[in-house]
Design goal:
The structure is a homotetramer of 402-residue chains.
Chain A: E1 2-10, H1 17-27, E2 31-38, E3 47-55, H2 58-69, E4 82-84, E5 102-107, E6 110-113, E7 122-126, E8 129-133, E9 143-145, E10 151-154, H3 165-168, H4 178-194, E11 198-203, H5 206-209, H6 213-221, E12 227-231, H7 232-248, H8 262-275, H9 278-283, H10 291-297, E13 302-305, H11 321-331, E14 335-341, H12 344-351, E15 359-364, H13 368-375, E16 381-385, H14 388-398
Parallel strand pairs in A: 11-12, 11-14, 12-13, 14-15, 15-16
Antiparallel strand pairs in A: 1-3, 2-3, 4-9, 5-6, 5-10, 7-8
Helix pairs in contact in A: 4-14, 6-14, 7-8
Amino acid sequence: MVQEIVTLEGHIIDSDILRRAFQRIVEGGGEFEVLRCTVGKTNEETSSAELAVRARDPHALDRILEQLSYLGASSVVKDASFAPAERDGILPDEFYSTSNFDTFVRLDGKWVQVAEQKMDCALVLRAGVPTCVKQRHVRLGEPVALRGPGIRVKPLERSRSKNDFGFMSNDVSMEVNKHVVVAAAARAMREARARGERIAYVLGPAIVHSGGDVALVKLVRAGWVDVVLSGNAFAAHDLEKSLLRTSLGVCQMSGRAVEGGSRNHLWAINAVNRAGSIRRAVESGIVKSGVMHELVKKDVPFVLAGSIRDDGPLADVIVDVLKAQEAYAAALKNVGVCLMLASALHSIAVGNLLPARVRTVAVDMTEALPTKLGNRGTLQAIGLVTDVGYFLERLANELQTS
Amino acid sequence: MVQEIVTLEGHIIDSDILRRAFQRIVEGGGEFEVLRCTVGKTNEETSSAELAVRARDPHALDRILEQLSYLGASSVVKDASFAPAERDGILPDEFYSTSNFDTFVRLDGKWVQVAEQKMDCALVLRAGVPTCVKQRHVRLGEPVALRGPGIRVKPLERSRSKNDFGFMSNDVSMEVNKHVVVAAAARAMREARARGERIAYVLGPAIVHSGGDVALVKLVRAGWVDVVLSGNAFAAHDLEKSLLRTSLGVCQMSGRAVEGGSRNHLWAINAVNRAGSIRRAVESGIVKSGVMHELVKKDVPFVLAGSIRDDGPLADVIVDVLKAQEAYAAALKNVGVCLMLASALHSIAVGNLLPARVRTVAVDMTEALPTKLGNRGTLQAIGLVTDVGYFLERLANELQTS
Amino acid sequence: MVQEIVTLEGHIIDSDILRRAFQRIVEGGGEFEVLRCTVGKTNEETSSAELAVRARDPHALDRILEQLSYLGASSVVKDASFAPAERDGILPDEFYSTSNFDTFVRLDGKWVQVAEQKMDCALVLRAGVPTCVKQRHVRLGEPVALRGPGIRVKPLERSRSKNDFGFMSNDVSMEVNKHVVVAAAARAMREARARGERIAYVLGPAIVHSGGDVALVKLVRAGWVDVVLSGNAFAAHDLEKSLLRTSLGVCQMSGRAVEGGSRNHLWAINAVNRAGSIRRAVESGIVKSGVMHELVKKDVPFVLAGSIRDDGPLADVIVDVLKAQEAYAAALKNVGVCLMLASALHSIAVGNLLPARVRTVAVDMTEALPTKLGNRGTLQAIGLVTDVGYFLERLANELQTS
Amino acid sequence: MVQEIVTLEGHIIDSDILRRAFQRIVEGGGEFEVLRCTVGKTNEETSSAELAVRARDPHALDRILEQLSYLGASSVVKDASFAPAERDGILPDEFYSTSNFDTFVRLDGKWVQVAEQKMDCALVLRAGVPTCVKQRHVRLGEPVALRGPGIRVKPLERSRSKNDFGFMSNDVSMEVNKHVVVAAAARAMREARARGERIAYVLGPAIVHSGGDVALVKLVRAGWVDVVLSGNAFAAHDLEKSLLRTSLGVCQMSGRAVEGGSRNHLWAINAVNRAGSIRRAVESGIVKSGVMHELVKKDVPFVLAGSIRDDGPLADVIVDVLKAQEAYAAALKNVGVCLMLASALHSIAVGNLLPARVRTVAVDMTEALPTKLGNRGTLQAIGLVTDVGYFLERLANELQTS
């Protein structure tokens, strides 16, 4: 058996760190001995624990220690090590893969916080700062951090104070009181605003189907929307509803009943593309209502990412998914609250780009979206199972928009 | 502020007890100070913690302490107090309500384990033993335990050993490896058998639709089924399939395509009721195949509970739901493993009657069943989202039935 | 090949009768020739068709003709034949099994409409009237109609007029415009009221979780609820919310967070049972708000059916499921509109008891409920996939309750 | 009122054309009179009907006639009219929008079949042939067909023969017998093979999670897979399973339990990209097993479309969604059967590109996928609700692969 001593610090009990550390050791085939454990006496004091971790060989021990490093455990305290990228987009095999938790790298004896924290990136030293860089953007020869000592993670801490946002994270049920979640979202939005942070919305087309667009327009108008991440479908449905609702006299929403009904969809895209872009279609008076109209009027930025199932698409859509990913990432700067509404594809994409500290609510008709987000590491998302139209109405109410 | 000192003991970190205790105190509006905390050094040693819990008034403190008592916390060590039942079926307002975790009551200075542990019962002193009794069965004047000191709960402990059953409890996802769960279920069944415990199955009609009946017959034949809890629908579908599959030459399963197709259902019930019971229909040679046939042949007991949507029903069905509940409870004696297969109604009913120590797997096409079970307190259930026919085939394979 | 001539009449094209007749013949292994087909020239005129149906042997032909009879096809015109019930609850094997469509039986050369139309019953001659009787209620020697000639069914006709209720039946999608369905339900309710018919509600506990109880109270108060069919869970949740919301100062809805939280549930049941019944608990001032309170105040009848998963249960619950089924059937007399809200068990039970002419809307978070209803023959139900709380708020709005 | 006479021909009753025509007229606010209706006497003969359609003004009548044209109705028989595209990618407002049904355009008095039939396209005259062209690919000045006379659609006809594929289309239920659908799929595959048509698979990552990859490898090996349409996730999961299963000694599938577990995902992508492509990774011996390995070995083409949530991505992934759409379209030439397995995004994309005559089965754990496909016009898809792993095992069995 080989052994290593590791230390855990922080709210390691409230935030479920110590239990998960035990679990990872056992899962990894190891054993542990608790050498010391002090628990913070009050809400303010943090706790710490020192564990002796043992495994049958150094390789197995390394794997366990790597797991523990994601829980913030520090063992041998020495500088992080780096190796150059083999080629553009090709990492050394021992690369460290990031989580969405705040991460620190030890350089010349000092712990430096990582820039642009997001999950599933390499850690590349750029201008002396360890930076989260997507695999494909790493350039030949850039120093890539390797897994092992010198990297520390600060996992998401669950708050000790009641009704707080962190308190509810990663919980999802159809049976939870929606009002509690709506109220928490509204409070988080107010707090983010007070801190000068921005509020992002991820939007799926079901918002238009469920009539949630009406409340969403109010939220945009009242200034509660700072940036929108979506795709072709939401924008095209919203524009089609705006353009064709009255002219044809048939219900746009019950599209199933209409043979060849997707013509309206194409017609709307054609009309907007003829104007040149959504902005121009609004400014030239073609589009007179709806969510996209309001976003343009209020100068709220929106990023529309292409997908292989798109009709059209609208001229505003970024059809290269990697460029779209970068545009999303850029648009998410300084976001403090993110509402993910009825869109699995775009919500997971955004979850991949957000640091875990962003307060996130995921609303959909089934548990599938929040469950998937949790499985993919967006552990901070509070799941709410309801009609997204209902959520938006109540949120607009709670924020007293009119 | 008022204060009370409480002690927690056991695997309070591995089993997530300490964290939940902190959470309950904060949720209840209280504060705490950790006076002492020792963590078991090895897998074998347990941990303990001493907390000072404070709240703004004695009433709020009582509510918090009650919550903590469900986590196994002991505070003032004195005998439990009792009050007589006001009338048949009417409890004193301060009654203690049981969980499905092993519970101990302090009587004359000694801790006595509760008999017939199950959730949502009163604790009644019968023949000197504190016993779980459903509200409606408590008789006038019987001593009913009150919430407060003298009652201790031993919450479910999650195992420290890998791949163990407890390790996976209350986890559910479509993305988990089914093989791991099937293997764990098979292992738990073998272990239960070795300990002389019984294996219970809760069965829904989708088993017949998904063709899982074939594998289930093998499991019965190989002796892996000790008791079946179900309703009218599963039995009637199984009997209809057995009786009418070949005689009419149409596919019984694709019933939707047949106008008036539920006649077959009624016909099967009529034929079996004419014989007098399922057992007699088997013994008289009317029913020659299927799950019910095999259960009769192998003398495996089954309990069929009535529901308001039943056709017929079969003569074997217990139409009084309270008597059916009691028959279920009686049939679940000494059960060590319970497989809940594609039936929300009966699975929740069985979950209400099982102590949490019974190893439980819940299989269904969506997360809804395991999520509901968890919400209602059947925390020990491992959820598996798959086709129940698939699960049964793989389980039969794993147990090498033929 | 044997042959028989059958005639179909009515809106056989609009109502999709002719197509389904063709389909049944082919599925049954038969062939057909269309001898004559006249299609109603205008909306008012009906159509008719005469088919020669052929099959390889008389038995196969009989099976096809039986299928066609459920579509309203008449062939040999002669009186229906009957055989006596063998014993109490035991039918002759050739019994005719009813659908929920209006049915006519030929007696002494005259077509007589069936009384108490509902699905999955035997047709028993009682006081000279062919009557739908559940299998178990047929008495020894009573004349039971046999399948074959002399029985005609009038299948559900889909309306030719736009936006009408029948127009939408048996359609379900998350993508339909909710407003259209809410408006159709409100219109159907007003029409039913004008015809002197009653409006029934089937209620599940999720109504309380989703905050739909507030709007439901308004609907009761405004006189839009004539009868309620439900179970123990809905009533107990509603009463618990009414009784304990303020006294304990914790959120009753987020019950998951509370260890031993189902105590509140039991406490509420205990308090109401101590009063003797829900009515007495309201009248004695114990219960001061909520849906059950309003039902009692407005003298709206409610029937609570027991199920095996019930806690308590409340004293009002009928624990014998067959008696509960009968009480449901009695309560559904003269119902013209039925709203099925978030309860699969009770909705299917009610669907089994309703003639197909009752306008039915089924609301739930997933397609599962409306799909199941359709599979089980409640073809008239319009499915609406949304949050039941949202539906109730919008319905109350549409009906201008306040 | 204005009036127009239209004619419908074909299996207009079996295929539910006449009923839907009536429905569209009423929905469009019109009225109709059936002037003549003859129904094909036998299975072989087709039927025909002549309707007088009336509406309040010519505009409304045009809208109704347009709807009827998608049902194959012909009215005024004259040549189709065209207008030039205004700019690259911009259509004249009166453009005709295609369905996925076989379409014919009248040019100089002759009916010419449309090339490259797919839905939601413009009809552009290219080299004298009316061709389905996506909006964005229409060039300035190209003649674009306008809605109105001269365009006829041949809607999907449902077969009159039992157990046939067309017979089951657009039906979906959890309660259908899976065996019937698996057998129909296998038969359709054999028939397609006999006709020299190809078999396409749309693959989602859940196939790997559910262990369906093992059966899928067998199907590839036995030659039952002609082309694969998928994305980065499926390929990366398959490669990760192949590369890392044994080297790390942890279960790749239960990834959730591993902190930082998505490192394995990135590692696999890195390793394959280092080789240059999936093909090179297989040929150089790095990838030794799995579905992608087998596809390369058997020279089965695959197209991987990028999406905004992709990790990596693999070098093989087409990151421009419009180019990916074109690559999908090219790969689908001469496809006769399409299996859509556990991937909503790619299945809808493929549905958009397939003519309705392609026999399509959509398999997933919930009704959501088949329902969405139907709503978006892929009406030919048979939905099967089961575990995709189960489906693949049974299909491989049915086709006697080994």
